[in-house]
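Page 47, continued from p. 46.
Same chain as before, 473 aa.
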Amino acid sequence: MNCKKKINLILIVILITFHNSLAFSQTIPSSFADLAEKLMPSVVNISTTQTIKTSSNPFPFEFPPGSPLEDMFKEFNKSTERKATALGSGFIIDKKGIIVTNNHVIQGAEDIFVSVNGSEEYKAKVIGKDPYMDLAVLQIVSNNKFIPVAFGDSDKARVGDWVIAIGNPFGFGGTVTSGIISARNRDIGLTRYDDLIQTDASINQGNSGGPLFNLNGEVVGINTAIIAPGSSGSIGIGFAIPSNPASKVINQLLKYGETKRGWLGVRIQQVTQEIADVEKLKKAEGALVASVSEKSPADKAGIKAGDIILEFNGKKIDTMRTLPKLVAQTEVGKRVILKIWRNQKLISKKVLLGRLESSEEFKVETKIEPDKSKYVKVESLKISVRDLSKEDIAERKLPKKTNGVVVTEILQGSPLVVVSVNDIIVELQKKKIANSNQFSNLLKDIINKGAKTLYLAIYNSKNQRSYITVKLK
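Result:
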C-alpha cells in the first residue's frame, strides 16, 4: 500500500468516526426545558384524606375478648379521630379531566383532590381501579377543559433511551427529573403482573402515579415504586408500569368501570432444573401446573396437575411468571392453543378462556375494605394497625387460630423498615398478640422497661411467617 492510499484510508476512518460521533451527540438533548414546559399542565398533584381513629387504654392490663369486664371498663377507653393525608401524582389523558394514577395512591381515600398547574385545585372521583396492576382512573369534577397527554409504545422503549419523570415528590409539585431506561421486564414481586421498566430518573415518595415520558412527550410508563434501603430516598432505582399493558387496563376501566382479564384456572409453580431433569426437558422452562380449579377452563380442556405449559397461544413460556401476564392480556372468551409437556411428550390443548373477575379464586383473593374506624395509631413505631379479622384469616388462608394485628399504615421515619402494609404482627417479644389495644399496651410496657430491640413474628403478604428484629432509637 503506497503512502497516498494510506492517507486516504486514514481520512475515511476519521470521517466515519466523526460522523458516528456527531450522530450520537445529536441524540443527547441539550435541555429538557421545552419538553417540560409543554408537559407540565398535563401532570397533576394528588392529595387524599382519610379518617384514622386512635384509642388508648388507661389500665396496665387488657381484658380478654368476650370478658364481662370488657364492657364494664369500655367507657374508660379514650378514642380520638384524626385526618390522615397522603400525596401522589397523576396525569391527564382526556380533555374532560380523566386522570391516571396508581391504585395505592387513592386506596382507602375518603376525599381526593387534584392540583393542576400547581394552583387550580379540583375534587376528583374514582371511575375504576385495579389493585392487580396498581392502577386507578379518576375524573376531575369540573366542566373545564384540560390538556391531555398521549400514551407511547412502551414496547419500542429501549434500554438507554432518555426519559423524564414529572410528579409531586414529598409534596414539591411540578418536579422534573431525567434519566434513562436502565432495564426492561423487571419482576420485583410488586404485583402478579410485574413487567416493569427500570429507570434511574429520580423518583421519590409522592411520585407514585406520575408519568414517565419519552423525548416525544409520550407516556411510556407510570411511576410506581422505588428501591430505597433504610428509607434513604431515591438511589437511582425506580420502576414504572409500561404504557402498553397499562393502557389496556385503563381502557377497560373507562369502558366498564372494572377489568375483564382472561382466566385459565390453574395454580402454577416454577420449573426448576431438578424438575426439568426428571421430566426429561432440555432446559428449565415453562410453568408447572400444581393444581387445576374445578370446572375452570383448564379443567374443561383436560389440563392436569403435573402438566408443564410451554407455550400459550403461540407465545413461549420462558418462566412461570410469563404465563399469568399472557393469560390476563388475552380477551375473555377467546380460544387459545396450549403446548403442554406431559409424560415426556409434547401435546396440544384447546382452551376457551374464562373471566378472572368472575372466578371463585378471584372472589377469595379480592380483599374486603377494612373498617378504618378500627385503626389504632401506634405513635412509638409510627404505624397504624387494626385487629386481624376472621375475614382476613379466611381470605389469606391463615391457620384458623391465628391472632394478631394488621399493619395499615407506615409513616416516614418508622423503625419498621422491613415491614410492609398488610403484614400481620402475631408476636412481640415472644408474646402472642391478641388485638390492637393489647399490642399497643404491651409495646409501651416493653419500651418503659428500656428495651433497645423488638423481636417480632410476622406474616408477610405471601403468608410467609418469619421473625424479625427492630432496633429502637
